[in-house]
Design a protein that fits this description.
globular; 6-stranded mixed sheet; single chain
């Protein structure tokens, strides 16, 4: 869902909801499980603006630098961390491995953290998905729409939101890192925060960091922090 508007960094001191409301509803205590959410680093699909959901695309050299920068930031500002979880796709798993090396943890792969699978529409450009396939119109009007062999928005939201809840339940009162994907995360944020995947109209940048608390209600403590990221070179 990279045709959604991209945000600039939203700092924890002035967090805002995509619709203009507040994200953070109160101070965190040691009883809260905090999920440090990271989108994977840059891939060639991000540059070329094509949909690679289930396609296993590696990080670009710049994506590798982004992963190292995110790892350094997390290792400096987000410790102690109890565990690191990652999508099985290389772009997310390799990002998580960079974070794990920095903090001395081995990432655990969770298949439910994978990106939105568009089935037979995988590899098509965002322009084609938008103008010819009408993907985003279908997503808005039908939660159960899915291309041949792919997933529906409802399936993606249930899968990823369920994974985040399960991970949080497994680590009461701890901070854990979760590395996943932009499209699936946008759907999950809508499901968790507003009970409607269509309500969330923002996308995390590559290797941006957000913080999510799920108990007693889903709350974004910060969203799309990017100040740690390196400038693109070359």
């Amino acid at each position: 869902m990279a045709d959604l508007p991209t945000t600039h960094s939203i700092r924890a001191v002035t967090p805002t909801h995509p619709d203009g409301g507040r994200v953070c509803s109160g101070a965190m205590t040691q009883d809260h499980t905090i999920l440090t959410i990271v989108r994977h680093g840059q891939t060639s699909a991000n540059i070329d603006r094509v949909w690679h959901g289930s396609i296993n695309t590696p990080l670009t050299p710049h994506g590798t630098r982004q992963a190292a920068a995110a790892a350094e930031w997390i290792g400096t500002h987000h410790r102690p961390i109890a565990h690191v979880y990652a999508s099985p796709l290389d772009r997310a798993h390799h990002t998580a491995e960079a974070i794990g090396r920095r903090i001395g943890l081995t990432p655990e792969v969770d298949a439910d953290l994978a990106e939105y699978d568009l089935g037979s529409w995988e590899g098509e450009s965002f322009a084609t998905l938008h103008s010819e396939r009408k993907l985003f119109e279908h997503m808005q009007s039908d939660a159960d729409f899915r291309p041949h062999g792919g997933e529906s928005p409802r399936q993606v939201g249930d899968r990823l939101a369920g994974a985040l809840r399960r991970i949080a339940d497994r680590h009461p009162g701890e901070r854990v890192v979760v590395v996943s994907h932009g499209g699936a995360l946008s759907i999950a944020f809508g499901v968790l925060i507003d009970s409607d995947y269509r309500s969330w109209n923002r996308m995390m940048d590559n290797c941006a960091i957000s913080e999510l608390v799920l108990d007693p209600t889903a709350t974004l403590v910060s969203f799309n922090q990017t100040d740690h990221l390196p400038a693109e070179t070359g």
